[in-house]
Amino acid sequence: MLKVFNTLSRRLEVFEPFNPGLVLMYVCGPTVYDYTHVGHLRTYVAFDVIKRYLKLAGYDVVHVQNITDIDDKIIRRSMAEGRSWREIADEFTKDYLEGLTKLGIEVDLHPRVTEHISEIIEFIQLLIEKGHAYVAPSGSVYFDVDSYADYGELSGRLSKEEWGQEEFAKEKKNPYDFALWKAAKPGEPYWDSPWGPGRPGWHIECSVMSTLYLGSRFDIHGGGSDLIFPHHENERAQSEAALGVKPWVRYWLHTGMLTVGREKMSKSLGNIVPVKDLLREWRPEVIRLWLATVHYRSVVSFSDAALHQAQQNYERLANALQSLQEVLRREEYSFKLSDKGRQLMREISSIRRGFHEAMEDDFNVSKAFSYIYKLTSLVFSEILENPEATVVLKAHTLLEEVNRVLGVLDKFFVQAPQLPVDQLIELIVEVRRRLRAAKEYELADWIRGELLKQGIRLYDKGSETYWRLL
After folding, report:
1. For the domain with range 3-301, which CATH number is right: 3.40.50.620, 3.30.2350.10, 3.90.1110.10, 3.10.20.30?
2. Are 169 and 177 in contact (CB under 8 A)?
């Protein structure tokens, strides 16, 4: 039985989506004013793992992740660099999407704020009509926090003294009211509205786009823990006020921060590591495995040591999988198992059960990975010693299942449907073996080098040769 930690209730709850078999999930995406950094990636990988496990558990998942392409920071950068705000937004949207692709993160829909201005205006008008928002003399529109009785419950900030917002304006009824629509300032981009030219506030966009694509109630709202207040607190307030539903979101899930030393990685602190730079040093599978094997609520410390450990873990997984695949290529199916084979089958089943029990405990992937490590140990120490095809296939199937969550071994499972790649490689290896037997070493070495360029490494062991994908 899957349980998740709900930030709102501050406890583990049995996972029961509004619609059986269907999970609707919204994750806060980037404000595209700079390069996507590893701190962002921590959250994106975490929710990709959550989504993958939900799919493995049999759910259909719809994943929406917004792109904020108009914001104070985008405008400031455009003015500082003398470029249009749209050029800034497009440049860093492209960087964000390229990073997701390289890390194997798939999102069903990336709605951009500027494509949804009319829907945002309609939502704000609804809040005004219901008495939850007011138009200020400047033409800005603010949410009246006092009109929503449950404000502060999500963040645990129950005192009004703790409700300070990012914008200060004398025209607000209360200092803790927040902007839904910002009246245009000279030189800033704007859209026409019933209250005059302006642009959306930060919080309203997520309420509008999540509701538009997932409905008036959905199952998971995710993001970094730094968004709990004020962003998610404000989203919850304006959405439940406008839509008249409670809960608007059934489960609020938040990721732990990524730190450098003891500080949060952030642009304001100047300690960010852009994803594009990290990809120059580490293969994407290693970066993904590092982030995918940390519990989503834990704080993650960025360090070379952590990435080196992830690289070792990746190589161990890849070697175990390819060793099993080598056996499957040459071993024939057997119709009987030895006593040892039966024992190994039971152990593999126990490991699989442990993996799923860990994942059902609030997606505890760090504990789940300990079972994966146990499986690789079993592969190297016992399964490969006296391989039986049935046992090997069982272990291989479990690694394939695990990879549906981790997503780091995809290339080892992908085969061209009409091209016998393995057989072609085996044929080349056999040709090379015959060349070596004929003492045509120069040509044999050339074949070895050319295969290496294609990502295929050969291992000579006496008269036998084995191959692995890099």
Report:
1. 3.40.50.620
2. no
